[in-house]
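Review session, final week

We close the course with one last complete record, chosen because it touches almost every idea we covered. It is DUF4371 domain-containing protein, a protein from Mytilus edulis with 347 residues. Go through it on your own first, then we will talk.
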Amino acid sequence: MRYSVVNDAVYCAPCVLFGPQRQDTKEKTFSLSSPVTDWENLSRCVSRHINEKSKHHDNVLAATEFLRIKTGENSDILESMWEIFNARIKRNREVLSCIIDAILLCGKQNLAIRGHEEKHSNFVALLHMRAKDNIVLADHLAFADPQKKYTSPDIQNELIELCADQIISTLVQDCNDSKYFGFMSDEATDCSTKEQASICVRFFDKTTKSIREEFLGFAEASRTTREALAELFLEQLELKGIDVDHMRAQGYDGAANMSGIHKGVQSRIKERIPGASYIHCKAHNLNLSIVHASEEPLIRNLMNTVQAIAFAFDYSAKRVLFFKESLEQNAVVREEIDRRQKLKTLC
């Protein structure tokens, strides 16, 4: 019971705070939810208020439980629900971490994720192996809703794309930290007969004090004119977050469309970035050197002889065994061979 000095009346505090705002007129009960000033019949009012038909007992229990929660004696239902929610988040993150680790392992080891069948794929096999030592993952694989296991091909592709974005973001940040960089590209036709252009950058890593060459991805080249390729290269670099104005070198093959001084891609890029000097790709130089050297009869005959010798031993187990036995009989030759690479490996 509480006394109001302002109203000079008494009321039931639990019923005022935790009872219904409106009293149901159909109920045959008496309520002290509103102040009472009938002092002569106060005892009878209180008796009628706390009878079995009244909601007084429920309101008192609600008030008591409220005080226990506020004092920390009992836990709040919202707090309990929040703890369950946080535990579920922690569990899902642990499961997702295991799934990402399996995808990254397949990528690092160049393993096919799916395999011949989805149910018996390398990805699923890695998860089940990991589940032997991880109770949370084992419970997830065994009892989770099939549509919420995060192991479908769509989820795998989405995670791969997210990992790729993170890797490219790190590489771009390293390139921007170096400030100046060189750009390299080459085109090739894929299995779907689409022209794909590689996007690569070369820069000096200030942390490791070394030159790095990083591959940032492929870009489909629908047109191979110098204007289209130059626009494609600059657009791809800008989309990835690289400041193209800091380009100081560009390397391509020796094709006129790429290396032309007046009508090549390199001249088109130099119109916008004068400091981007063109350098012929060394890998293409080596390839061209081998092609031109093979035009000489002496070199061509030498390569044909080496190829014929390799074929003679490669397709005959008897010849290889006889060759090894002959070498083992000569101590000088055997010692010399132990210190050298095999001819086939060297070639």
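Two points worth writing down before the exam:
Residues 24-30 have pLDDT under 50 and may be disordered.
The two ends are 101 Å apart (CA to CA).
Good luck, everyone.
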